[in-house]
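INTERNAL AUDIT FORM
Audit reference: QA-55
Scope: verify that the stored structure record matches its stored sequence.
Auditor: D.O.
Record contents follow.
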Amino acid sequence: HCMYVSPFKAEAMKLPLYGSCFFPVKYCSDPHVQGECIMAINKTGVHFLSQKTREPFVTYSFQDIVSSRKLRSNTGQQFLDLKCGNLMVMRVTRCETAYGREIATLITQYTKMQLEEGRRRESKIGVFRADAALAAGTY
């Protein structure tokens, strides 16, 4: 099933932040991020961008993010915690933002989408291997 894509859109789709949702962040505990920043979320991960240059300070892939949760302090400040790493080493990146719920939901949606794509690829590989084994007479 092919769809026509205009030359402009084809070029735009190559840009690293194509399809991103952008959120203001007042503070981020990651040492690579300096001061206020912009969080961009797209199919490649979570990107922390400089407010001035729009260049990324740091990017977390969805494979790196173990979980996310929204918090509120006693003083009413709103935070998002991103737990990143693996079972051996984990770190929490805390972001002060009023959009914690929206960000956490978006991260969950992208993570689920990537898991489903991985399962589809694995099932196609399994079918390919079974077909190859049948063709070779080894199955």
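Auditor finding: record pair retrieved intact. The chain has two helices and eight strands.
Action required: none
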